[in-house]
Write a structure and sequence with these properties.
Belongs to the metallo-beta-lactamase superfamily. Class-B beta-lactamase family. The protein has helices spanning 56-59, 77-80, 96-100, 109-112, 198-209, 226-240, and strands at 11-14, 19-23, 35-38, 44-47, 68-71, 89-92, 140-142, 147-149, 154-159, 168-172, 177-181, 215-218, 224-225. With 242 residues, the protein is an alpha/beta fold. The strands form 2 sheets. The protein has a 7-stranded mixed sheet, with no helix packed on it. Helix 5 (198-209) runs antiparallel to helix 6.
């Protein structure tokens, strides 16, 4: 399989609301984490950091321009691979141990990380069988209701267990933007990981349903409107009640 140069590994696209979308386009869409960079007045925020197979700080200058907090929506391999590159790292308390002591098993790298998840491979010496997330102990532990303050922007931490015990969404009330992580996105949701919980998933979805949302930036697949957000959650909940 073709190897990609490190300088070509990431794709960067600026959106509205001072949000920038960063992704790894050579990872197949189902496995490809959305990395979100949010510009604030006093500091920036990064929501998730991809697989970590190519340095984010070396090849995406945007993430090193200013003081930045790297937030983990949860601790699966595709979301925390570059967290070790950042000085300020935040995660929900329920998954702090996973960020500090990641293994192939507890980050789901085993069995998901194989050459088959790529359309083209990262540069050498990358090896799927050798892949592992690096330790990145949190410098800030998050709980439900906490606020991430960027100076002129304020993101409320919403604990959304179900996909994983420490999953979170980040909500900006002023703009009605939601960074939803993997609890809800416009694609097939994963409800059967080793630490997923069906009852928690339903409770999280019911809570999110009542949130006034204009725009959603999910953990995977394209962003979508508040109308689509409500449609997705209602459809999911209706299926559970059958």
């Amino acid at each position: 399989m073709q190897r990609i140069r490190p300088e070509d590994w990431y794709s960067v696209r600026r959106l509205g609301d001072d949000v920038t979308y960063i992704c790894e386009p050579y990872i197949q869409e189902f496995y490809r984490c959305n990395i979100w960079h949010v510009r604030g007045r006093d500091r920036d925020m990064l929501v998730d950091s991809g697989m970590g197979v190519v340095s984010l700080t070396q090849w995406v200058p945007l993430v090193t321009e200013r003081d930045l907090i790297a937030v983990a929506s949860h601790t699966h391999f595709d979301h925390i691979g570059c967290h070790h590159e950042f000085e300020c790292r935040a995660v929900h308390s329920a998954e702090a141990d996973l960020l500090a002591y990641p293994t192939r098993e507890n980050t789901l790298a085993d069995p998901y990380v194989t050459d088959e998840i790529f359309d083209a491979l990262p540069p050498e010496p990358y090896c799927s069988k050798c892949y592992a997330v690096k330790r990145a102990p949190a410098t800030r532990i998050l709980e439900d209701g906490d606020v991430i303050d960027l100076g002129d922007r304020y993101f409320e931490v919403i604990h959304t267990p179900g996909h994983s015990p420490g999953g979170i969404a980040l909500y900006e009330k002023a703009s009605e933007i939601l960074f939803s992580g993997d609890i809800v996105y416009d694609g097939p949701l994963i409800e059967d990981t080793y630490h997923s919980d069906g009852k928690d998933y339903i409770a999280s979805m019911e809570r999110l349903m009542s949130l006034p949302v204009r725009l959603v930036h999910g953990g995977h697949f394209p962003s979508f409107s508040g109308e689509r957000y409500r449609q997705l959650i209602k459809g999911w909940l209706d299926e559970k009640q059958k």
